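Now for a chain:

_____
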Amino acid sequence: MWTVLVPALFVFAAEVLRHEVLPEYLHDALPEMLGNVLTGAAALVISAIILLPIYRRLEAADAQLRATQIAQAVSAERERLARELHDGVAQALFFLNVKATALERSLAPTDSPRADATIKPADPGEARPIAAEIARAVQDTSLRVRDAIFDLRTGPEPGEPLNAWIRGYVQRFVELHGVAGEVQEDGLPRELSLEQQLHTMAVVREALHNVAKHAQARTFLVRIAWGPTELTVVVSDDGRGLPDSPAGPAQGRYGLAALAEHARAAGGTVRLSAGTDDAGTAVTFRMPYRVAS
């Protein structure tokens, strides 16, 4: 800490030496102006020698902190994908196994009972709806896997701000799903912590996944509003709108729970409502700013 005072102490000592201790010797040999310039230059060199290593250590510490934050973000993202795979794909496979077993029973000849007497042959008339359920489950699982891979491939570029990340994600989402969409932005972008950026992006992803899976929408809009104290992101579509009783975890749907979880973790709120002119669905996410670390 005391090292930062060395330049000031040097200037003080030089001035005392020039004006109080050795004025009669230095006055002729060292004019006033030249003495001031040399003293200032010497102080500047000493400051550089002392402070440059300190700045380099601070830069290294900042880089280390940034690397730690990125590692934590990667870990959180892997945890999210693992949870999504467990909640979605693993349960879908369990469901498919149950339905495949029922389909097998429904197609078994009634005069050749299975060796496992505990399994009662089902009605052959059930085969068609069971096969339809299996087909829907396979399609839904295929979408989940595709979305998970899509999310893995659409991370931010180093140093990319949130608004550019959202625009890039939306562009690739449109190309993948064939739904027309755009991003509108108001206000002056603010710097957000990495944690808040990740949660905001997670909300946008989940809202757009719902557009692709359930909304049957032709178009969607992502509106980013940088307010004085909070960020507002609205994802709206022109689809069929919200059902009277949105499915939740009890029905194997975790999208709404994920939205609420990310909003809470970011210190914000999320609300679902009807879209423009009471058509479609709008997901409104509000988050107060935190100081970026």
In short: Residues 203 and 259 are 6 Å apart (CA to CA). The longest strand covers residues 219-226.
